[in-house]
Write a structure and sequence with these properties.
alpha/beta; 12% strand; binds NADP nicotinamide-adenine-dinucleotide phosphate
């Protein structure tokens, strides 16, 4: 089955969709397999787009957890600013939708399924990016989970481990995987997505807040160690941003009232309002900035 379809798939761009469908219908392959191959084809190859000229032209960027919310906004912005972007998350359907959405906007993106907690997925993300683009210049580590709400001492060991495995360890392991390729390229830029909660823990999400504090430390450590290799490591610390992840904080009025007085701008942020900061940190304009965290929180109280 593979033998029949693969040549068509490989040359899919040359022979066109019509021939691919004809070839499949007239063979025992079946439409399901055809759909699977088409999906793989669409995800793997950024459609040829008009070249985006911008501050990130010629750069290759990997953004984790980038099929919705802040990650998707970052992926879109990096692509608009000229980078070739590989987006990813756990669910194939989410990846397909996000790739389709950004490609329809004329952006140079492709996608791959990557659960950052799985070693094989992290390795595949890096190797596929290299296969498709020949280099990695930018890593945005954006994935995080929060499986526990309540008093910190009530958090189970399993939930604590999950939080640190995804939010901290996976960011470290991804950085470890991309650094040799950035070194080969003569430099690069890593942005870790933390949270304002990393500075000022939010009530009832203590373990998550502590994991985000750990990222502030990881940023400093990696920035120092990687500066000689011309790899800059910085951090984004969003305040409350309107996404599915934070919906418990903003979806009803009473929860919002808790935060109202603490946000100088008296509103929560939008994912797009985080994205430009990441693009800036990855750009030449930030060439002398490393080990920093930029808080994007509408003036929310979180540090001096
Ligand atoms: P979101 O809108 O809920 O999006 C979460 C994304 O993460 C989805 O694309 C999801 O796709 C993906 N994802 C979840 N688990 C994953 C995993 N293990 N591996 C890979 N991808 C995974 O979330 P968000 O609010 O944009 O949050 C993004 C980052 O911003 C997080 O690091 C979060 O801590 C941080 N942050 C958010 C806020 C806020 O108020 N929203 C504030 C401060 C910091 P799949 O389901 O397909 O995997």
């Amino acid at each position: 089955m593979r033998g029949i379809l693969l040549p068509y798939y490989c040359r899919g761009r040359e022979i066109g969709l019509d021939s691919l469908i004809l070839a499949s219908v007239s063979s025992p392959i079946g439409l399901a397999r055809l759909a699977e191959c088409l999906e793989h084809f669409l995800l793997s190859f950024p459609k040829p787009q008009t070249m985006q000229l911008g501050v990130l032209s010629g750069k290759v960027a990997m953004v984790t957890a980038s099929t919705q919310g802040i990650g998707l906004a970052i992926a879109r912005r990096l692509a608009r600013d000229g980078a070739q972007v590989v987006i990813s998350s756990r669910k194939k359907e989410s990846v397909c939708n996000a790739v389709g959405q950004l490609q329809a906007e004329g952006l140079s993106v492709s996608g791959i399924v990557c659960h950052v907690g799985k070693r094989e997925d992290r390795e595949a993300l890096v190797s596929e990016t290299l296969k498709r683009h020949g280099a990695i210049d930018i890593l945005v580590s954006n994935a995080a989970v929060n499986p526990f709400v309540g008093k910190a001492l009530d958090c189970s060991e399993e939930a604590w481990d999950k939080i640190f495995e995804i939010n901290v360890k996976a960011a470290f392991l991804l950085a470890k995987l991309v650094v040799p390729h950035m070194e080969q390229r003569g430099g690069g830029s890593i942005v870790l997505v933390s949270s304002a909660a990393g500075y000022q823990p939010i009530a009832n999400i203590g373990p998550y807040s502590v994991s985000k504090t750990a990222l502030l430390g990881l940023t400093k450590v990696l920035a120092t160690e990687l500066a000689p290799a011309n790899i800059r490591v910085n951090c984004l610390a969003p305040g409350i941003i309107k996404t599915k992840f934070s919906s418990v904080l903003w979806s009803d009025d009473s929860s919002m009232q808790e935060f109202d007085g603490t946000i100088a701008m008296r509103r929560i942020g939008e994912p797009e309002e985080c994205a430009g900061t990441v693009s800036f940190l990855c750009s030449q304009d930030a060439v002398y900035i490393t080990g920093e965290t930029i808080v994007v929180a509408g003036g929310a109280y979180c540090r001096l």
